[in-house]
Every structure is written in structure tokens, then in C-alpha cells.
Write a structure and sequence with these properties.
It is built from 10 helices and 26 strands. With about 475 residues, it is of the alpha+beta class.
Length: about 475
């Protein structure tokens, strides 16, 4: 049974409805709070949490319940209320399901997943207790060792929810890796993939044949010395520590789907009039004809697209960095993560963006130079890399090999071009010379990469270009 239960309601759960849900364990259950009241918990007799309930989130972006849960939500705006049961306690899972069922009954709407939502009667929990809380003191963390924090996620898509974001922060503050365990068939949101980083953080997939494997690399894993680590092959040596690759990870079925990926960085002068998000919106419009649909500081993205409101959030958090997720509409799947940082150079925006295309759809490659020029002339572009790869149209990350992208283009902002000695930036070893962007006095450059998108030769061209620009 899932550990997470979500109520999707057309009206905000009022305090009486929440109280009725919290009484799912009977009137003698203790109620506590965390996160300055943002999380309410049903606790055992020792005050340890059985169920943790997030504050209801108003979602005003269409398609997020379909994207993340595979279910239909009420018309926007609607309220998204999550309850997370303590791992390994069956009664806690029943409490979470009863809480969501009561909420949906009193306020209207539905609960996910349907099979986790049962009777609205009081759950018998007499004598039930949980193990002591982990030192991280976070309801999202299921196992804590001196190496890693482990989170169990039984959802269709492992997304950067407020729960998981809190677990990332807790692990980082403790100097630990974060390891996410999910069942076979689950996919990963690009927002989570980009945040995982390197070892010892991993996405661990349960598998019937190999036990556990890394969903991003395929390495077969075992729980060893307080963390999931790779299994060594019988013929491994110190010089060649080979690791078996899971059979499920190698089962590749090309459907003709592709993704167009862009990574770009902008450095803005620090100014009170600065509005962030404009560069991302410009690229989104150039490539899809529409602005993004919504954004948020976690998933689901709950707010309608608004550069002004996005800027206000970043300003309030400064000088701390701000992380955001941005999504498109269902007609053209797209997702971006944005990291905003205040540095000595100014205000930096680093964007990772991907759009999905089906077998009969062509990515708008002809629009790329115009998107690069708009970034260079209006949004203080520093650099941009464009790639095309064989990957799912819905932009979710599956636990199998998809292959790397092929670089299609690279761009340098005007300040970077001016900083290079002589005409190095304008004369390259590539057959096709760069395309000038913007006015001659502050010219940026767009470098088409002549590699064949059907193979990996584009990486050779990109490597030659980078070596040249660095003066190597």
C-alpha cells in the first residue's frame, strides 16, 4: 500500500473538515505540528508521528494531477492536500487513507490512490507505536544512517514535492546523500533528476530480477554498510571495478519520441527594476508559440505563470538561492528548472529546459537562432547549449537507458565574446562559422554544430569548439 495519500478537492478543506480527518484514529490520538504549523501530525502515545499532513495547496495549473498522479482532478483551481504515513506501520497507512476519504466526503472531490482510500470509520490503533524519529526530524525521511537519508516513494512519478524538497534540505544540512527508493514502473521528474547530483545520492528502483538498481545508471545495487551501493562483478579488480547492469535497465524500446533540451545561463545586473523569468518565457514562446503554463517552488507547479510574482519570491529569499520548477500545457509537454543566485557578477539565472515531441512531431529547430538572439539582446545571455535526444514525449525519466543527447548548437553572450582575445570567438575549427547575434557593437555568437543528429558525432564537434574557445 502506498505511503502517500492525496485529497483533490474543489474547495479548501476548512478547519472542521481537517479536524474530522485527523480524528480518523479516534479522539485519543495526539496531534502535533511542525514547520511553524505547515505540517500537522497524528502521533502515537509517545508523541511520535503516525501520519503527517501538509497544509492544503491551491493548484491553478491544469494538467498537474494528470502529469504526476495519472488521475483526473477537479477543474482548476482546486486544493491538493497530502498525507504521508510512517513507513512500515499498516495502521498508519489506514489512517492516511481514512483522513483523505473523510476530507473528500466532507469537502467534495476525490482521493488518490483510490485503492488506498477505504472506510471513513475510525481506524483501530490501540497499542500502535512507531520507532523513534530519525535525527533528521523530517517526516519525509524513512531511514537515516551516517551516510544517507532514504526516502520511499510509491507514486507514478517521483516529483519534487514539498516533502521531498524538505528531505533534500535535511540531507544537505547533515552532509548526507539522499537515496530515493521506488517500485518498478515508476518514473522520475526531471526536477528530481537534476537535483540528485552524484554519489551517494541515487534513484533506486526495486526489480524482480536484480533486486535493486540505479534508475539513472543501471548499476545493480545492494544495501551495504548503511547505504545502497553497487554490486561488484565476480571478475572485478581494483583497477577495473566492474558493476553489473540490471537487465530491466537495458530493455530499450525506441518509440520515435524525442526531447529538445536547452541549458542556458543569464547574468543580470543587480537592479531593483529587474524582472526575472523573462528569458525563459521568451524561449518558450519562440519554440511553442505560448508562454509557460505555470510555476512553483515545488511540484505540483501550482501558480499561473507570472514573471513578476516569480521575481518577488526570489527577492524575498535573497541572498539565499531560489529554486523553481516551470511547466507547460498538455498540448506541448515541457518542464524547466530555474536556479536564481545572487553573486558578485549580479543575479544569475540558470535554466534547464526540455520539450517533448512524439514520433510524428518535428522539433522547431529553425526557431533556435531567434531564441538565442532574443536571449543575447534582451536577457544578458552568458551561454546556451542545445541538444536533441531520443527520450519520452511526456519528459518523464524512465528507469532504463535512453542515451545521451546530441549537441545541435552552442551560443555565447556578447560579454563572453568580447572577453576573448582577437577574433578567436569568430574563427573556429568547424566547417560552419558562427552566426552573429545582435548589433555589431555588442555582438553575441551562435554556433551551429554540423554533427549528424542521428549519431554522437555532434559531441566531437562540440569538444573541438570548446577547446578552441578556451585557447587549447
Amino acid at each position: 500500500m502506498t505511503k502517500d495519500v492525496i485529497a483533490l478537492t474543489p474547495r479548501m478543506p476548512d478547519p472542521w473538515a481537517v479536524l474530522a480527518g485527523l480524528l480518523s484514529g479516534g479522539p485519543d490520538k495526539l496531534v502535533g505540528t511542525r514547520g511553524e504549523g505547515a505540517v500537522i501530525q497524528l502521533c502515537d502515545a509517545e508523541g511520535r508521528p503516525l501520519v503527517s499532513v501538509e497544509a492544503p495547496l491551491l493548484v491553478s495549473v491544469e494538467g498537474e494531477a494528470e502529469r504526476l498522479l495519472g488521475t483526473t482532478a477537479p477543474p482548476v483551481p482546486y486544493w491538493w492536500t497530502e498525507a504521508r504515513a510512517t513507513t512500515g506501520v499498516a495502521e498508519a497507512e489506514q489512517l492516511a487513507g481514512t483522513f483523505a476519504a473523510r476530507l473528500a466526503t466532507l469537502v467534495g472531490g476525490s482521493a488518490w490512490p483510490p485503492d488506498a482510500v477505504g472506510s471513513i470509520a475510525v481506524v483501530k490503533t490501540d497499542g500502535v507505536s512507531v520507532a523513534p524519529e530519525p535525527a533528521a526530524d523530517r517526516p519525509a525521511i524513512d531511514v537515516l544512517t551516517d551516510k544517507v537519508a532514504v526516502v520511499i516513494q510509491d507514486r507514478p512519478v517521483v516529483a519534487m514535492t514539498a516533502w521531498l524538497s524538505d528531505a533534500f534540505r535535511a540531507a544537505a544540512e547533515a552532509g548526507l546523500g539522499l537515496q530515493i527508493v521506488s517500485p518498478a514502473g515508476t518514473t522520475l521528474s526531471p526536477a528530481v533528476r537534476d537535483a540528485l547530483g552524484g554519489w551517494p545520492s541515487r534513484w533506486i528502483v526495486q526489480d524482480e530480477r536484480d533486486g535493486y538498481y540505479d534508475g539513472l545508471t543501471g548499476a545493480v545495487l545492494r544495501w551495504q554498510d548503511g547505504a545502497f551501493d553497487p554490486v561488484l562483478s565476480p571478475d572485478a579488480t581494483e583497477d577495473d571495478p566492474r558493476t553489473p547492469v540490471a537487465a530491466a535497465y537495458q530493455e530499450v524500446h525506441h518509440t520515435g519520441d524525442r526531447q529538445l533540451g536547452l541549458t542556458f545561463r543569464m547574468v543580470h545586473p543587480a537592479d531593483e527594476r529587474l524582472v526575472l523569468g523573462g528569458g525563459l518565457e521568451t524561449v518558450w514562446r519562440e519554440l511553442t508559440g505560448e508562454p509557460p503554463a505555470g510555476w512553483g517552488t515545488s511540484e505540483p507547479a501550482n501558480l499561473p505563470w507570472s514573471p513578476r510574482r516569480l521575481t518577488d519570491v526570489a527577492h524575498e529569499r535573497a541572498p539565499e538561492p531560489t529554486w523553481l520548477v516551470v511547466v507547460g500545457n498538455r498540448a506541448r509537454p515541457g518542464i524547466a528548472t530555474v536556479r536564481i543566485t545572487r553573486t558578485q557578477a549580479g543575479v544569475e539565472e540558470e535554466v534547464t529546459l526540455a520539450f517533448g515531441y512524439g514520433a510524428g512531431e518535428e522539433p522547431p529547430l529553425d526557431a533556435l537562432p531567434a531564441a538565442a538572439e532574443a536571449l543575447a539582446t534582451r536577457h544578458h545571455l552568458q551561454s546556451m547549449l542545445v541538444q536533441l535526444r531520443k527520450a519520452r514525449r511526456d519528459v518523464a525519466v524512465p528507469p532504463r537507458f535512453e542515451g545521451p543527447g546530441v549537441p545541435l548548437a552552442f551560443a555565447l553572450g556578447s560579454e563572453e565574446v568580447r572577453a576573448m582575445p582577437g577574433d578567436r570567438a569568430r574563427r573556429t575549427p568547424l566547417a560552419e562559422q558562427p552566426v552573429p547575434l545582435g548589433p555589431k557593437t555588442r555582438q553575441a555568437l551562435y554556433y551551429p554544430l554540423p554533427g549528424d543528429p542521428s549519431d554522437l558525432s555532434g559531441w566531437q564537434d562540440f569538444e573541438r569548439l570548446v577547446r578552441h574557445l578556451k585557447g587549447a
